[in-house]
Amino acid sequence: MVREIQAKVLLSRVRQPDTLFGLSYGMNLYRGCQHGCIYCDSRSACYEIDDFTDIQVKVNALELLERELSRKRVKGTIGTGSMNDPYMPLEQTYRLTGQALEIIARYRFPVHVITKSDLVLLDLETLRQISQVYAAVSFTVTSADDALCRLVEPGAPPASRRFAAMRRLADAGILTGVTLMPVLPFLEDTPQNITAIVEQAAEAGAKYILPWFGMSLRDRQRDYFYQKLDLHFPGLRQRYERRFGDRYGCDSPQAAQLSALLDSLCARYGLSRRMPVYRREAATQMKLF
Fold first, then answer.
1. Is 226 inside a domain boundary?
2. Cα–Cα distances in angstroms (integers) from residue 281 to residues 109, 112, 194, 278, in the given order
3. 63, 71, 77, 98: which has the fewest C-beta neighbours closer than 10 Å?
4. 276, 287, 283: which is closest to 75 by C-alpha?
5. Which range marks the domain in which residue 112 is found?
6. Number of domains in the chain
């Protein structure tokens, strides 16, 4: 179900300092998401979205963005992709993300897009324009296996398409990399999977890998995740329950080993575990004659 709504504000201030993604502002043009990732934290009760498949479109978002950017005197990176994917299939119809990027380009704000979709290529030229200031596109990749992707991220393009889009962006001179998170314990936390992701990212022109070797689990998110485990991976739910109980942060038992492996792979392929972030130029004091 898709509903059009009126929002009161669009940009939210990000708690500083954001040393991971380099954001100053968050921007969500939609509520809910069509990708249906079985692990999505945004299903949690604290976000007050009763049915995450009920997509709400902020039809006045562009008007709000124009007004809010015109009033900001200090430029900071605008991030999109935290509460939902800005390039879910509905974006092809509404094109809110594409039009918002055009406004951001006009006001010369930096941007960081986080997505699982190759639909970001629709806005390649706008992103090139923004990159004159700063533009980064991070592709979330949790598994290099397309078959597993279709089970855990059923509405999103498979990893192979994300890497192909990454290559296009890198060839166009746009900063791009991988958000390697979450890494689902007992499903994706293997040396083979991490190695495959890093190797394909390097081949696709990535500059950085941002990892979390684990996942979050709370209330409605946990319930939904366990339902999908029972459906697709019988017996795995019980392993989660024994290992993590009611814990919110569920780090992989292999986290330390995988982190060391990632260090060695990044060194081999010239990748960073930290992304280059936008740094506002210090104002230049004019000389008096």
1. yes
2. 13, 18, 36, 9
3. 71
4. 283
5. 2-269
6. 1
Tokens linked to 128 = 């090139």
- Above 50 in pLDDT, residue 285? no
User: Locate tokens 């592709």: which residue?
Assistant: 139
Dihedral (C-alpha) 94, 58, 35, 162: value to the nearest 10 degrees? 60
pLDDT in tens, 215-231: 999 999 999 999 999 99
CA angle 167, 119, 1 (to 5 degrees): 155
Domain-embedded: residue 101:
yes
Q: Give, to the nearest 10 degrees, the angle between helix 159-171 and helix 191-203.
A: 30
**Residue type at position 39:** Y
pTM of structure: 0.95
Residue written as token pair 């209330």: 219
H or E stretch covering 33 = none
Average pLDDT over the chain, rounded to an integer:
95
Q: Are 94 and 39 in contact (CB under 8 A)?
A: no
Residue 285 lies in a domain: no
Residue 274 covered by a domain = no
Dist CA 18 CA 222 (whole Å): 27
> How far from 37 is each of 128, 149, 206, CA to CA, in Å?
29, 9, 23
d(CA 3, CA 57): 6
CATH number of the domain where residue 238 is located: 3.80.30.30
Pairing of strands 11-13, 25-27: antiparallel
Give 15-54 pLDDT, tens digit per residue.
998 999 999 999 999 999 999 999 999 999 888 887 888 9
